[in-house]
Design goal:
Radius of gyration: 29 Å
Distance between the termini: 15 Å
Helix content: 25-40%
Number of helices: 8
Order of helices and strands: HHEHEEHEEHEEEEHEHH
Strand content: 15-25%
Number of strands: 10
Length: 294
């Protein structure tokens, strides 16, 4: 405050420099904390993602298909297995303008595996996944409040997803956005059909490890199945935030930490320069009898 009274420009520069350094560093720490924190589910370390490894020649489709899901579901290394497909559809059905909304088509086992219960109504059931079953949809809490004002009578009403009518059967609790900020969930119609290898939609498989199973043992068991392609099993956290992204975020934390150090050193040099300029004045005041604080 004394510097503010005598040298307001110096005080303003010091405050701005420190505010920018502290602000940048705090922001990056918050981003890294959000990206690396555990998934908000029961025993998140047991959740894994399963992917097929493409051969080096690149001539074979390495996408996960319904046939692979049905095959992997028999593995003893998993207590449960599910698949999902990320989709973006036109959402309509209320009085507002239609909009493009990101959602996910999932298996009923996804909600059982996490586990996750609906705030209103119910989640997707296995009967909803049968080919030819009536289309249903589960809404996220954010979409429900934004489009329908949190109307509790939404259950049983009809909305349109890219022109197809779906019955709203449930609303999920706040902050539930599996797999990655999904705003709605529809069933994957993959049950009741004889799927052949490399046919059907491209899916992302995930599962929960059974008691005593590890990622290595699960990968070893899956690679014993009669399939032309080998698989890899990784923590599901790596799907949401790849390790390359996490390494990049840590590098940014180091960079902004240097920005904070530079800001602190600049402020220190600024104050030292001010003190050097005022040293002759201070010496003269002391020589004529002034005391500290005057």
């Amino acid at each position: 405050m004394r510097i503010w009274r005598t040298s307001p420009f110096v005080a303003i520069v010091a405050v701005i420099a420190l505010a920018m350094g502290i602000g940048f560093t705090t922001t990056m720490f918050s981003i890294v904390h959000g990206a690396t924190r555990p998934l908000p589910f029961v025993n998140p370390d047991e959740l894994v993602a399963i992917e097929k490894l493409a051969p080096r020649d690149g001539n074979t489709d390495a996408s996960t298909r319904p046939y692979d899901y049905n095959l992997w579901a028999t593995a003893h290394s998993f207590s449960a297995l599910g698949v999902y497909e990320s989709i973006v559809l036109n959402f309509a059905g209320d009085r507002r303008e239609p909009e493009r909304v990101a959602g996910s088509a999932v298996t009923a086992s996804a909600f059982e595996m996490l586990p996750a219960a609906a705030l209103l109504g119910r989640t997707i059931r296995h009967d909803d996944m049968r080919v030819g079953a009536p289309p249903v949809v589960v809404l996220s809490d954010l979409l429900w409040r934004r489009r329908f004002g949190g109307n509790p009578q939404i259950i049983g009403s009809t909305v349109r997803l890219s022109g197809v009518s779906h019955e709203v059967v449930g609303v999920m609790p706040p902050r539930f956005g599996f797999p990655i900020n999904a705003a709605f969930w529809t069933p994957l119609p993959i049950e009741g059909a004889a799927w052949q290898p490399r046919t059907g939609p491209r899916l992302q498989a995930f599962g929960r490890l059974a008691g005593g199973a590890s990622i290595d043992s699960a990968r070893a068991e899956l690679n014993t199945f009669p399939d032309a392609l080998r698989t890899r099993v990784v923590p599901f956290q790596d799907i949401e935030t790849p390790r390359e992204v996490i390494r990049g975020l840590y590098l940014l934390v180091v960079a902004v930490s240097f920005v904070l150090l530079i800001a602190c050193s600049n402020v220190a040099n600024l104050l030292l320069a001010r003190a050097a300029v005022r040293s002759r004045d201070a010496a003269l005041r002391l020589a004529i009898g002034a005391r500290g604080g005057n």
